[in-house]
Amino acid sequence: MTAAGTGATRNDVWPDDIFAVLKAAEVGQVVYVPDAGHARLIELCQMDDGIKTVPLTTEEEGIAVLAGAWLGGERGVLLMQSSGVGNCLNMLAMVQECRFPFLTLVTMRGEWGEFNPWQLPMGQSAARLLRDMGVIVQPVNEAKQVGETVNAAARLAFDAYRAVAVLISQRIIGFKDWTTAGNAR
Amino acid sequence: MTDEKEITLDRRRVVARILRERGDALLVTGLGSTTWDAAAAGDHDHNFYVWGAMGGATLLGLGLALAQPQRRVLVVTGDGEMLMGLGGLATIAVQHPRNLSVIVIDNESYAETGMQATHTRHGVDLAGMGAAAGFAQSITVLKDGELERSLPIIYQSAGPVLVVIKVTTTAAPTVLPPRDGTYIKNRFRQAVLGSEVFK
Ligand SMILES: Cc1ncc(C[n+]2csc(CCOP(=O)(O)OP(=O)(O)O)c2C)c(N)n1
Ligand SMILES: [Mg+2]
Questions:
Q1: What ipTM is given for this predicted complex?
Q2: Packing angle, helices B87-95 and B126-133, rounded to 10
Q3: Model pTM greater than 0.90?
Q4: Residues near ligand 1 (Cβ within 6 A)
Q5: Which residue, by CA, sits nearest to atom 16 of ligand 1?
Q6: pLDDT in tens, B131-183
């Protein structure tokens, strides 16, 4: 957990910080619907022999997969974009009822400097909906705090058996090609 | 569309027959009737009953199968439950878990909610979908003999396996297993992983 512990100084290494935290937390399954903000982290996970990566057709699948993983003694994490939160709600009922540990890392859209109006409804509702379904929400606004926030969230999830979402602010993600390619992503 | 009179298998007998061979296999059931079927066959600490989360049973089975690659994992769920999570067939096929068998108890109805027709009543072919997704085995069972022949496929064939079993809509009494989610979860983990996981 070196990167997370010492605090990264550059703004673009936060996915590497998350990866270090996930490895230290012995996460065995990383399930995801891709988001541009998670591209680097997904790549790092795919390259790691100790992590099974499970691409999903919809985010709610991931909640069920991770519940099964926990039943079988493995820890997992769901990577998604804020719009995916809306796909998850009924599946979160199982997390709450069974008190499954649950860790999701949500890259935010429709939150800060968004240009695609279609992203706004879910982006603005994601935190509230997650809380309504019993998920502890931990927003992070600065790149250098991502690692320590995910580390703390992983403890709540796997040691204290809670459902936790880390919302990674749009401030941290994606200024690069904002107005060029991939606008709708 | 399946001709009504071809369907003769009784769901309770089918599920009991399959589970008689379970050995140390792990079982996940879908919401409603398949959970009652499993309970009627006998409650077991290797059973995880999904009382809700419609559409999630097969995916829960996937996560479990990936975490426990040495054990056979069975998912027994309804056609309605399976239809709500069709994308899961693709997600499972991509992972090709060799130890996962999905069994759909297909009464072509939503029995729990008043026996309304599901898409399978109108000809939607779940086994065809499993095959198209890339399941290693994907078959439909209509008769007793086929059920017997499916048993080695369910328990021994390299997965992922999908077995769609056409059953009658004959009402079966509700048999309730435990329903407290934390209890079912912890009981399962204790049985499969041992007490150390609670330390
Ligand atoms: C998200 C959601 N939608 C609808 C329901 C209502 N519901 C409960 S059981 C069920 C039918 C399940 O049908 P199937 O899986 O075919 O099981 P059967 O009882 O026919 O064996 C439905 C629609 C629900 N519990 N959750
Ligand atoms: Mg049915």
A1: 0.96
A2: 40
A3: yes
A4: A 90; B 30-34, 54, 78-81, 105, 107, 109-113, 118
A5: B80
A6: 999 999 999 999 999 999 999 999 999 999 999 999 999 989 999 999 999 99
**B54 vs A: CB within 8 A:** yes
For residue A85, how many C-alpha atoms fall within 13 Å in the half-sphere facing its CB? Answer: 32
Question: B171: which 2 tokens?
Answer: 């009402």
Is B188 an 8 Å CB contact of chain A? yes
Domain B4-198, CATH homologous superfamily name and number? Thiamin diphosphate (ThDP)-binding fold, Pyr/PP domains (3.40.50.970)
CB-based contact A54 B85, cutoff 8 Å? no
Q: Phi and psi at residue B116, in whole multiples of 5°?
A: -70, 150
Give the C-alpha distances (Å, rounded to integers) separating B75 from A32, A167, B5.
22, 33, 27
Element (H, E) at B127: helix B126-133
pLDDT digits (tens, 9 = 90+) for A114-136: 999 999 999 999 999 999 999 99
Q: Which domains does chain A have, with CATH numbers?
A: 14-174 (3.40.50.970)
- Interface contact B53-A74, CB threshold 8 A: no
Nearest Cα residue in chain A from B70: A72
For residue B77, which atom of ligand 1 is closest to its CA? 15
